[in-house]
Amino acid sequence: MTAARRSRVLDLFAGPGGWSEGLRALGLRDIGIEIDPAACATRTAAGHTTIRADVAAYPTAPLRGKVAGLIASPPCQTFSAAGLRAGNDDMDLCHQGLDDIARGNDTRAELRAACADPRSLLVVEPLRYALDLRPDWIALEEVPAVAPLFAHVAGILRGLGYSAWTGVLNAADYGVPQTRRRAFLLASRTRTATPPEPTHTKDPGPDTLFGPALATWVSMAEALGWGATDRPTPTVTAGGGKSGGPEPFPTSARKALMDAQRRGSWVLRHSNRRNATVRRADEPAATLLFAKASNDVSWEKDGSAGPESVRITIAEAVALQTFPAGYPFQGTKTRQFEQIGNAVPPLLASAALRPLLPAALEVAA
Description:
365 residues; alpha/beta; Rossmann fold; 2 domains
């Protein structure tokens, strides 16, 4: 097997390219498998190679012996705290699916039919690919509720000679202006799998004899280039028209925003619920989730009477997810927000992959 044929990185459920951008920053490229047309269009516009297909139906045989690294972020809606959590009811079926696949018994069709939400069983797909392709390294990411399933996968991989680590990482610890917590599985056949070393922390403290203190968590204001209490008056609303075009702010809304800008500090309200998470602009955001609630993620003026509300913009969401400025998200505004919120922040992806990549680079050399 030539090095070139064995140097590919395969990205399952690739989305708009969060993992791909993380790899690109480290000098590598991937081939993504993604079924959503808007996400595929985004990947194409960003220059990422993509196969538009259903991961669960795609054959693995043609890929055997050709994949050095495997990445996967299965859809999280059924396990997410923001959803209905049907995945909790399907957890035992998912565990059974992992055991069945490890024994060479493909029961996915019948288990999927038994699930409260058929999407829950997509979490077993990365193991199917891993067992068929035997990549040198593996990186999986999901919402924290999936951590027990990742621990199950790790046990199976260890039985095949992989070193594996599972745990929950906070994106803010790696320079992402967002306290997004996600479960990860990192595994390698050639290195000891370890979590990435944090680069940032909430309270750094002083330098010590063992080295300089970590950097302080990156705030939203810092990531967006704002002053301590200012937010530039926007020229378009966050959502724009349904077709994706801009929608100018009404004059009255612009005046209210400018008036509010002279009072207090900006905060980001992450939904319109009474118990919504609210963060000041000098703090990291909470986990950015949009989907159908994109209209509800809004900036408000802290301390004002009846605070004015201004929807977050695409550009702001892109920056808070650490995608490059101007990243070419495609589709309607709603579809763009969905892609942004569902993606792995590229800066977090780079951090998670870095401990695994030397093995891949040695193979590709």
